[in-house]
Amino acid sequence: xxxxxxxxxxxxxxxxxxxxxxxxxxAMNSLKLAAALQPWVYFPLLVLFWWATKMVxxxxxxxxxxxxxxxxxxxxxxxxxxxxLFASVRFQYPLEPVMHRLALGIEDDASHTQELNxxxxxxxxxxxxxxxxxxxxxxxxxxxxxxVALYRLLHFSFVTFKTVLFLGNGIYAVLFPLALAYIVSxxxxxxxxxxxxxxxxxFWCGLEWLVMLANPLVPYPFWLMKLGxxxxxxxxxxxxxxxxxxxxxxxxxxxxxxxxxxxxxAGCVLFVSLLLCYAFYSSVFAFLGGFPFALYLWVxxxxxxxxxxxxxxxxxxxxxxxxxxxxxxxxxxxxxEFPEQHPRxxxxxxxxxxxxxxxxxxxxxxxxxxxxxxxxxxFTYVLVFKRQTLSRNEAVLAGLASLYIISTYFIGFSHANNxxxxxxxxxxxxxxxxxxxxxxxxxxxxxxxxxxIALPTFQxxxxxxxRGFKDIIHPHAALQGTSEIVALNMDRSIRQxxxxxxxxxxAEKKFSQYSVEKMPTQSLDSLDIMDVELExxxxxxxxxWQRNPEIPAEPCPVKQ
Length: 560
Fold this sequence. Notes:
Helix content: 55-70%
Strand content: under 5%
Largest sheet: 2 strands, antiparallel
Shape: globular
Number of helices: 24
Distance between the termini: 66 Å
Strand order of the largest sheet: 1-8
Number of strands: 8
């Protein structure tokens, strides 16, 4: 196998994984299968879909048409190395059984561990919430089918949920950049466009480099809060290290667009439909950000490919519909917010008096517009100097992307504002692609500026890796005394445990409750809004046939 063949192999593998993820999720829930059967469904589907990907993955690589053989190999090697670096951030997780204590966790992995807990320790699907035993698990579902299958396949005591989080996220972290590099090289018109597309999509961090001057090795994703804006325009590095399941949804939407443009026939319809369904059930926010583009492409295709377009919409709806109940009947205050309640408060540095500056809604909009012009400076450059080169199609796509990004000032979502944080990823990729063919020739000054702007990318790698090594050499005080939890997690004979037995540990180290990889015997108290987001009262109405009798859920409302 040649090194330059890796992007094409990664494209096929990722396509197969996404399709197997969704198809397994659909089968497990619709047929209410025992959770133990998951790998017996997943791996045959994975092999089947990988074999079928030959219909939408040509044997040739256009990369060698744009680059000399040696340069192409170096480019692929560079992309592979970055993927491996992103995969390394959870290197400490598999070492928990050896260290006999919990490892330092990546942000959000507390929730991810409990998502796996529901999917693995439920007796049957649909899965039970690991927080409230009378509720169903119902969010960020499809991407976890891979680590769930790996956990069931690797039947060893030292393989814990944290181990498969490391493996699953590592597989995604390596495959994503390689598969995207394949799409870029297949669609690009020049070598320069390939380099710019990879840089803008994978390394561009906008204004975030200004924040890292204060704390060079400590990422600060919500830096816009310093300006009173409840927003986070996550870089690729932030998305792939912290929330790969959201990023996977966006990547699926991009794969979907590529397959639709390049291929025809039943195979194209099948894969596009499955990719849309996977994106929807992996992150509805990333899907929401990509939906305007999918709709635009669908409308355009009605003139030339009406049959395929109608078939995709019909098949996608039929596959999505059986599990739509997961987004209904939420138990808590989880909702979109309009208008978004930004703090609209700036605290000046002490050198400037430390005063608090309040500003109004429309003043905030002007500040927001100035921020996004700088945050997406590469596209501001295109608008100022290259707008006349945009085709009508590119202008529409750029307009849709810009409108979504502008809408994030007006529309928000509970807690971390995933409408912006996750939803903007596809619009950002669209702007990167349109700009990549119009960026200037590289000069020394421009190169220095681009390196500085990309520095936060390496923050997201260096911080967890260095913290992990430091914790191995000098164990963190908060993680001492957690050996009982690790021993419990390694015992696969236990599915459910009485949390009161570990009350002393939880009282001292509250975070450790999220590290227990067993279902509780009683529902947990004082849930965070992030926990509530993962729950649903379960299927009712036309979905009542999917109710799991093992979950003592509230009865469906009776129509009067």
